Amino acid sequence: MSNSHDWQDFPAPAKLNLFLHIVGRRSDGYHLLQSVFQLIDLADTISLRINEDGAIQHLNPLPGVPAESDLTVRAARLLQKETGCSKGVDIRVEKRLPMGGGVGGGSSDAATVMLALNRLWQLNMPRSRLMELGLSLGADVPFFIFGESAFVEGIGEIMTPVATPDVDFVVLHPQVHVSTPQIFSDPDLTRNTPPIKVPHLSSATTQNDLEYVACKNHPEIRENITWLSQYANARMTGSGSCVFASFSSPNEANRVIYDLPKNMTGYVARSLSKHPLHEFAEF
Ligand SMILES: C[C@@](CO)(OP(=O)(O)O)[C@H](O)COP(=O)(O)OP(=O)(O)OC[C@H]1O[C@@H](n2ccc(N)nc2=O)[C@H](O)[C@@H]1O
Ligand SMILES: Nc1ncnc2c1ncn2[C@@H]1O[C@H](COP(=O)(O)OP(=O)(O)O)[C@@H](O)[C@H]1O
């Protein structure tokens, strides 16, 4: 018989930055962005089991990420500290999203833990508070808690919903690690793209300002963009390394993956209009 202490599975979907402009810099050195964030149905699975003794444990830590620094554990501890909740949780993560790929995997895992525990620990925290708390874990966490396609500004905390078309994406993962701090500190980075008032959905008038510097340091990213550009307009997401292009049917996207050379890695993903756990917090 099912009870509240069984394992339960929750999806943590990825995001793509349809464009990413750097429009300025804050006095603390952080860069001000404008971006449209799009949820896609490529996802990690977070399994949670509630306990009554207050312990928070990660049962299958990721290679290279000690349990205590994993964003899922940090998210659970943050919520427990904030609310004084006496319950704990055991955590398992089934990782599918490329780590350090610019698809927001770590941030999405953290957001899913916060949304799921909001329900399982019966916290009834408003979405706005969860978003504020989430920002302290990472710039992309508020977006995943917001839970729908958004025009994102500031360093990731200002959000306006935006209707994006339903499309199928091909996402390629060049097997290189891009250092986000290194990209943001590169003298060649464009930091003065003029701010736009409303989000543009046409790729003709937008770009990813981080792409030039990322490709300069990692030619593999340029090679992946060039290969995918044979089929459709292709660009990098976030600080890389993943690159993507959109297609109007799953067949078209699958055909591209069929042609993929053996030395490249890629996925097909569909746009998501809402986060699967959107109902777990109220505005
Ligand atoms: C650019 C985005 C777009 O989604 O890239 P992805 O992480 O998705 O790839 C994010 O905002 C990335 O934010 P976040 O993931 O928190 O960046 P971190 O790795 O913590 O940032 C590392 C370092 O990059 C610089 N940094 C980061 C974000 C920002 N808006 N301005 C910055 O100048 C800071 O020096 C910071 O210490
Ligand atoms: N649950 C998690 N999943 C992925 N990465 C995590 C997690 N917790 C902490 N991290 C750390 O965050 C870093 C960035 O991860 P990720 O979110 O996948 O990248 P990106 O922001 O480029 O999409 C990883 O290299 C890892 O050290």
UniProtKB/TrEMBL annotation:
Domain GHMP kinase N-terminal, first and last residues per copy: 71-147
Pathway the protein acts in: Isoprenoid biosynthesis; isopentenyl diphosphate biosynthesis via DXP pathway; isopentenyl diphosphate from 1-deoxy-D-xylulose 5-phosphate: step 3/6
Gene Ontology MF terms: 4-(cytidine 5'-diphospho)-2-C-methyl-D-erythritol kinase activity
Database matches in Pfam families: GHMP_kinases_C (PF08544), GHMP_kinases_N (PF00288)
SUPFAM superfamilies: GHMP Kinase, C-terminal domain (SSF55060), Ribosomal protein S5 domain 2-like (SSF54211)
Keywords of this entry: ATP-binding, Isoprene biosynthesis, Kinase, Nucleotide-binding, Transferase
Domain GHMP kinase C-terminal, residue spans: 216-264
Enzyme Commission number(s) from the entry: 2.7.1.148
Catalytic function, reaction form: 4-CDP-2-C-methyl-D-erythritol + ATP = 4-CDP-2-C-methyl-D-erythritol 2-phosphate + ADP + H(+)
Active site: 15, 140
Domain of life of the organism encoding this protein: Bacteria
Catalytic EC class: transferase
Binding positions for ATP per the UniProt entry: 98-108
Gene3D superfamilies per UniProt: 3.30.230.10, GHMP kinase, C-terminal domain (3.30.70.890)
NCBIfam families the UniProt entry points to: ispE
Listed HAMAP family: IspE
Annotated function: Catalyzes the phosphorylation of the position 2 hydroxy group of 4-diphosphocytidyl-2C-methyl-D-erythritol.
Family to which the UniProt record says this protein belongs: Belongs to the GHMP kinase family. IspE subfamily.
Name this protein carries in UniProt: 4-diphosphocytidyl-2-C-methyl-D-erythritol kinase
Organism encoding this protein: Iodobacter violaceini
